[in-house]
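Annual report, structural modelling task.

Input specification for the N-(5'-phosphopyridoxyl)-D-alanine complex:
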Amino acid sequence: MIYLNGKWMPIEEACVPVLDRGFIFGDGVYEVIPAYSRKPFRLNRHLNRLQHSLDGIRLKNPFSNEEWKQLLEQVIASNEGEDQYLYLHITRGVAKRDHAFPLNVAPTVFIMSNPLLPPPAELLVSGASAITALDNRWIRCDVKAISLLPNVLLRQLAVDVQSLETILIRDGFLTEGAASNIFIVRNNILLAPPKSHLMLPGITYDVVLELAATHNIKHEVREIAESEVRTADEILLTSSTKEIMPITTLDGKPVGTGQPGKMFAQLHALYQNYKATQMRGHVSDPLQS
Ligand code: PDD
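The model returned the following structure:
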């Protein structure tokens, strides 16, 4: 069952008018929220990021956080699967085609849920391959906009060569993946590019940095040069749907030893443990939010 503008229906019955500004202009924003054991993971963070994206496109939030929470609970309850990923999507609504914002138009609000499957075990054991490409997206990548054409084209470059992800380089520095954040490891130090308008502030990215801080893993948040990515000991990919994955081949060459490294093993174990505490609803969890 999906939610569309106040109504609940099977997805096959859900339709939006062709003049929806999401369809015409890609004028909207979205969120992807994992739910484990039917409990949304880091919901407040996702709702805060949604507000940031809405502010970025000057669209009023149609709901309070409390209302969002109730709606998302209903979506989870009316779909199958203990682990789900929630997709919510807000556009500037339906109006005669004109670039300028329409007046007094209700936004379109759509929420769906899909089963959330863990990354394939063999990829965690052997690692995945990635390619690099120039980051040719706009310069508001901190806004989770539904207009994803550059991301789609960049990710397809990876799919075309049977790779998992395209790692993006802008002006000689690492930004992120086409649909993920990227960390590297050099000399046993975890390195993360700093949040800026050039990357999405990933919720999983935050979890990884918080886990590193609380477990005394050496880490630095700083600009990462392309040459450092190419000579990294490890490369790690994070996202809400892929969690943490090791990248062991970059542009056809092995990363470090070509096998998932120690930093991946440690962070992956910590992440699974952290998820488990969330599922048990551990209120004393210091990272809970
Ligand atoms: N994508 N950067 C980009 C460009 C992304 O699209 C994503 C996630 C991330 C990781 O953010 P988070 O950890 O909050 O999921 C970084 C989602 C999963 C998607 O579009 O399907």
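Residues 283-288 have pLDDT under 50 and may be disordered.
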